[in-house]
Each structure stands twice: as C-alpha cells, then as structure tokens.
Design a protein that fits this description.
Layout (H helix, E strand, L loop, with lengths): L16 E5 L6 H11 L3 E3 L3 E2 L14 E2 L2 H9 L3 E7 L2 E6 H9 L3 E5 L2 H10 L3 E7 L3 H10 L5 H14 L8 E4 L3 H16 L2 H17 L4
Helix pairs in contact: 1-7, 5-6
The structure holds guanosine-5'-monophosphate.
C-alpha cells in the first residue's frame, strides 16, 4: 500500500468536510448513500478509481472509472486531495471536485479508506471524521461472503486488511457501529447536524443576532 500527502485544500466560508472510513464490507457506502438522502445540503464526493467496474456499477455514478495510466497522470499533476492503493487498485478524491462542492456551500462527505483519511488529516483542513465498525469480525465475514461480489481470495484479503484497519478507529472523532442500517444512519445524521451548530460554526449567525440586541433601545 502506498500513500502520498497532498497540499492543503480549504474553502473559507464553504461547507464542512466529513470523512467516513470503515473496513470493506461494513456497509459504509449504503449508509452514506442513505445519509445524503436524509440530510439536506450534504453531498458525497465521487472518487476516481483504476479498478474495473463491477456488474451493475456505472461510470460517473458509483465511481469515475479511469485507467491506471490516467490515474497516475492525475497524481503527477497533483489533482488528488488524497489517493491510495487499496487491494492493488488506485482510489482517489479529486481535489477540484471536493473544492467546488464545498465552495458551493455544501457539506461534503468522503467515503475513503484509512490511508486516505490520514492524508486528508495531515493537510490540516478542518474536518470531522467518522469510523464505522461492523458488529464483529464474524458479521463482516458473513457480509463479504453474502454479497457475492468477490472471489474467495479477495474476501480473505479484505478480511486480513480489516484486522489492521479497525485499530485505526482511535484516530477518528466519532465511532458508529453498523449493526442496524437505520440506527447507523440516524447516528450519522445526528453527528452531521450537531457539527453544523458547533459554536465556532455558529459565530457569524450568533454575531448577527447579537448586533440586533445592540441596535435596539430597550423600551
Ligand atoms: P471498493 O473497491 O469495494 O469500492 O472500495 C474498496 C476500498 O476503497 C473501500 O475501503 C473504500 O472506502 C476505498 N475507497 C473508495 N474510494 C476511495 C478514495 O477516493 N480514496 C481512498 N483513499 N479510498 C477509497
């Protein structure tokens, strides 16, 4: 696995950046797809990947599918906010994509692996991180085998990687267990909504309200 730190990206006055990581098979993509449907103003950034599309996946919807050569050229041009080699394929978040979404005032959620999350954290961009844990190793194994998307060797590899990844939960701001999809979405929604009313975020609104207090003589 390789990682490369990139330069800071920050959009003053723009939306907030959220990062969600979890071992493969935890169901994080399903959770976040639901989340963006129930939280107005929240959008998911679409990653680039050099891996082949699985059956049913669509280019420009699930991922931007590109060749390894195209991906590597984008890396060389510094076009990724973060990128990583995951299970032998390259994955990355387009810097311009994330910046444009945030500049439009939207909160942006990146569903990325722990290596990518570490890179985004290292840039110093203000961000909120959430780790989604499966209820247990056994449940993760059942889910990976049950979805029937991957050959046995790939499943073993994902499970092996998961053993290392779960320890990374310590580096995240929030930890949610995906034992029930609705409950997991509700917990994530609460995190987003609470983060939106942090005092530091609310300062411009609070100051505008406070001004009205100063301007009005008490009758
Ligand atoms: P899958 O191939 O199953 O769609 O994804 C495999 C892994 O790649 C997952 O852990 C997923 O979170 C991660 N991943 C997807 N997009 C990105 C990305 O843009 N950056 C990084 N670092 N990881 C990603």
């Amino acid at each position: 696995m390789t990682t490369t730190a990139q330069q800071p990206t920050h959009v003053p006055g723009g939306g907030q950046l959220f990062v969600v990581s979890a071992p493969s098979g935890t169901g994080k993509t399903t959770v976040v797809e639901r989340l963006v449907q129930v939280v107005p103003g929240l959008t998911m950034s679409r990653s680039y990947t050099s891996r082949n599309a699985r059956a049913g996946e669509r280019d420009g919807v699930d991922y931007n599918f590109v060749s390894r050569a195209t991906f590597e050229a984008m890396v060389a041009r510094g076009e990724f906010l973060e990128h990583a080699d995951v299970f032998g394929n390259l994955y990355g978040t387009g810097r311009a994509d994330a910046e444009q979404l945030m500049a439009s005032g939207k909160d942006v959620v990146l569903v990325i692996d722990v290596q990518g999350a570490g890179q985004v954290r290292a840039t110093g961009i203000p961000l909120v991180t959430v780790f989604v844990l499966p209820p247990s190793f056994e449940v993760l194994e059942q889910r990976l085998r049950g979805r029937g998307k991957d050959p046995d060797a790939a499943i073993r590899r994902r499970l092996d990687t998961a053993r290392g990844e779960v320890a990374a939960y310590e580096d995240y701001d929030y930890v949610v267990v995906n034992d029930d999809l609705d409950a997991c979405v509700t917990a994530m929604r609460s995190i987003i909504l609470a983060e939106r009313v942090r005092r530091t975020r609310m300062r411009p609104t609070a100051e505008a309200i406070l001004k009205t207090f100063g301007a009005q003589p008490v009758a």
